[in-house]
């Protein structure tokens, strides 16, 4: 598994040489001001807020120590069992997992169609996908609410999976078609000459090459659904259907004196997505530089 | 590739269906509702309203104009700063240095964090009695003062900085991706011609990044215009509606007062403005006409 993760994506740009051979090389003193210092400052800006949350989550109530020692898990117990973050976590996992699967499958199908076929209406379809990026979820709340009410999807996890999928899919599909385009079609054709059907050729030859693409597209669908606040807030008003962002927003309002609990809830909400993101961010950069930015 | 013609249609059919139901149909119905009186709490009044919603919006609703102005201010400040910082960050992490992969993962990580979670983290950080300012004051740096979120003078900068924290990585990722597609020999050629670092940035890097900058700026502007989760949870639109954006106003109309007709009219106004600005922006920036 580790091996597949570190394997460079099929569409990665040619590896840069490990050391750039400049005359000044790495001893260039201007690098400190041009590179190290700004990076350090930006790292502080990024990490201090995360650290602050972690400290609050791990130290006992009333303590102001900057190093959370002795550590306590009391706040996690409060939010997980007391406030119900355990349930919210499960709901978020189901929604984000379901969206991941649906978006991956549909993006693979659509991306393959865009990359490998010429069909009537293709340009219009692509244009519609791009335009959909400019259609704000917030502005669709009212009609979506009515649709959800009519379809009996209010307060269901299924409804949220469908809505998240619909909003994540266009970008995922555009990204995926870029990835498919980068897999040489000759490989597939060779397999078909050897007697494979197109379907078998796809599963045997192309799909394995798309593994990094699926990791990237699936992960970003997961992150998007995990973080979606508005739909979850509007379409799931019963507490047993709350997601983590919704639970957290109530914690902000109602438990704003219990900072330990708030921080612990934040850690629960942050850990899965930040971990997923840390692993896959390079695939995203590779995928974008492979041509998706060019539309 | 020659093939049976139905295959691509079958493959995109589910996507088309989802887009029809969740994107196309809602746009149509927002348009329809905007000409209706449609309030769930007052069903006896419902019916065709003509242009009434729009008349009220334009001439009798100061909060519409106020929220629109704040939305514009929010988008300009937020996107401008994110672009500037994101470009610098992308240039930095595009260099070769020790532990670059780790540095990238760390500085990009807030991008994965939701608006609500961002709010939670920064509320802890901004808290007047246990936050970072209090801590710094204890070390003799600055003074703790009052809550930056409760003070009308500081609530806007505090909100901007909070959104920068998770917004800058978006630009950094988009621009880093494009930076990696610049052929190295362009820089070498420029160096041979005697261009210094700044000159190379202006003549090679920036022109190459242009389309990516235009596109990601537009995407981000639309997203920031429609940003609800962060502002809703951080300030709730207050104090005194000072930080109410147009989408936040729509959500309040729809959810709190169930006024779907008027909320839809606000939505249509938002659409039209967004569309108009986007087209104008693409025209002015001459997107896609790279020479």
UniProtKB/TrEMBL annotation, chain A:
TM region(s), chain numbering: 39-59, 79-112, 124-148, 160-180, 213-236, 259-280
Pfam assignment, any one: BPD_transp_1
Principal location: membrane
Region (Disordered): 1-28
Presence of the UniProt keyword NAD in the record: no
Gene Ontology CC entries for this record: plasma membrane
CDD domains referenced in this protein's UniProt entry, alphabetically: TM_PBP2
Entry's localization field: Cell membrane
Gene3D superfamilies for the chain: MetI-like
SUPFAM superfamilies in the record: MetI-like
Membrane topology per record: Multi-pass membrane protein
UniProt domain ABC transmembrane type-1: residue ranges: 89-280
GO term, biological process aspect, one: transmembrane transport
Keywords recorded for this protein, A-Z: Cell membrane, Membrane, Transmembrane, Transmembrane helix, Transport
InterPro entries in alphabetical order: BP-dep_ABC_trans_perm, MetI-like, MetI-like_sf
Recorded family membership: Belongs to the binding-protein-dependent transport system permease family.
Protein name per Swiss-Prot or TrEMBL: Binding-protein-dependent transport systems inner membrane component
Record organism: Actinosynnema mirum (strain ATCC 29888 / DSM 43827 / JCM 3225 / NBRC 14064 / NCIMB 13271 / NRRL B-12336 / IMRU 3971 / 101)
Lineage of the species this protein comes from: Bacteria, Bacillati, Actinomycetota, Actinomycetes, Pseudonocardiales
From TrEMBL, chain B:
Ranges annotated as spanning the membrane: 12-35, 74-93, 105-125, 260-282
Recorded topology in the membrane: Multi-pass membrane protein
Location relative to the cell: Cell membrane
InterPro entries per record: MetI-like, MetI-like_sf
GO cellular component, as recorded: plasma membrane
ABC transmembrane type-1 domain boundaries: 68-281
PROSITE patterns registered for this protein in UniProt: ABC_TM1
Highest rank taxon of the organism: Bacteria
Pfam families, per database record: BPD_transp_1
Single GO BP term: transmembrane transport
Keywords: Cell membrane, Membrane, Transmembrane, Transmembrane helix, Transport
SUPFAM superfamilies (UniProt xref): MetI-like (SSF161098)
Family the entry assigns: Belongs to the binding-protein-dependent transport system permease family.
Name of the protein in question: Binding-protein-dependent transport systems inner membrane component
Upper lineage: Bacteria, Bacillati, Actinomycetota, Actinomycetes, Pseudonocardiales
């Amino acid at each position: 598994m580790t091996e597949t993760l570190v394997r460079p994506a099929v569409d990665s740009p040619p590896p840069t040489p490990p050391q750039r051979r400049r005359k000044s090389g790495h001893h260039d003193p201007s690098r400190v001001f041009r590179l190290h210092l700004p990076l350090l400052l930006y790292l502080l800006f990024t990490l201090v807020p995360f650290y602050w949350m972690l400290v609050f989550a791990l130290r006992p109530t009333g303590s102001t120590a900057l190093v959370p020692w002795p550590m306590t898990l009391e706040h996690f117990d409060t939010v997980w069992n007391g406030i119900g973050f355990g349930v919210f976590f499960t709901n978020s996992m189901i929604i984000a997992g379901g969206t991941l699967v649906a978006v991956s499958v549909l993006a693979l199908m659509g991306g393959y169609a865009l990359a490998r076929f010429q069909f009537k209406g293709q340009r219009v379809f692509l244009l519609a996908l791009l335009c959909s990026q400019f259609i704000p979820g917030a502005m669709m709340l009212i009609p979506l609410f009515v649709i959800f009410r009519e379809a009996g999807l209010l307060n269901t996890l299924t409804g949220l999976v469908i809505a998240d999928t619909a909003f994540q899919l266009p970008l995922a599909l555009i990204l995926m078609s870029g990835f498919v385009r980068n897999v040489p079609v000759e490989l597939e054709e060779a397999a078909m000459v050897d007697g494979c059907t197109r379907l078998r050729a796809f599963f045997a030859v192309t799909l394995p090459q798309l593994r990094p693409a699926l990791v990237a597209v699936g992960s970003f669908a997961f992150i998007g659904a995990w973080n979606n606040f508005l739909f979850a807030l509007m379409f799931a008003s019963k507490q047993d259907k709350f997601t983590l962002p919704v639970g957290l927003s109530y914690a902000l309002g109602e438990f704003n004196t219990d900072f330990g609990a708030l921080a612990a809830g934040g850690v629960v909400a942050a850990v899965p997505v930040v971990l997923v993101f840390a692993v896959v961010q390079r695939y995203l950069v590779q995928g974008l530089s492979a041509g998706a930015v060019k539309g | 590739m020659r093939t049976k013609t139905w295959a691509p249609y079958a493959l995109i059919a589910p996507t088309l269906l989802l887009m029809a139901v969740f994107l196309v149909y809602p746009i149509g119905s927002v348009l329809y509702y905007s000409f209706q009186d449609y309030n769930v709490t007052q069903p006896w009044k419902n019916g065709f309203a003509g242009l009434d919603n729009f008349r009220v919006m334009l001439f009798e609703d100061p909060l519409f104009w106020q929220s629109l102005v704040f939305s514009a201010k929010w988008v300009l400040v937020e996107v401008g700063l994110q672009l500037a910082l994101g470009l610098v960050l992308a240039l930095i992490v595009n260099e070769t240095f020790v532990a670059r992969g780790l540095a990238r993962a760390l500085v990009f990580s807030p991008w994965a964090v939701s608006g609500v979670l961002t709010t939670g983290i920064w509320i802890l950080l901004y808290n007047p009695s246990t936050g970072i300012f209090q801590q710094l004051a204890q070390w003799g740096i600055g003074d703790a003062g009052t809550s930056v979120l409760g003070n009308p003078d500081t609530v806007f900068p505090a909100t901007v900085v909070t959104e920068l924290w998770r917004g800058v990585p978006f630009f950094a990722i988009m621009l880093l991706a494009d930076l990696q597609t610049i052929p190295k020999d362009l820089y070498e050629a420029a160096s041979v011609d005697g261009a210094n670092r700044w000159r190379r940035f202006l003549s090679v890097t920036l022109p190459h990044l242009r389309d990516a900058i235009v596109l990601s700026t537009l995407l981000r502007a639309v997203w920031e215009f429609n940003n609800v989760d962060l502002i809703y949870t951080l300030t709730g639109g207050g104090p005194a509606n000072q930080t109410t954006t147009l989408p936040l106003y729509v959500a309040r109309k729809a959810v709190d007062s169930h006024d779907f007709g008027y909320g839809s009219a606000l939505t249509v106004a938002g659409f039209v403005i967004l569309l108009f600005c986007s087209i104008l922006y693409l025209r002015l920036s001459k997107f896609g006409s790279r020479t």
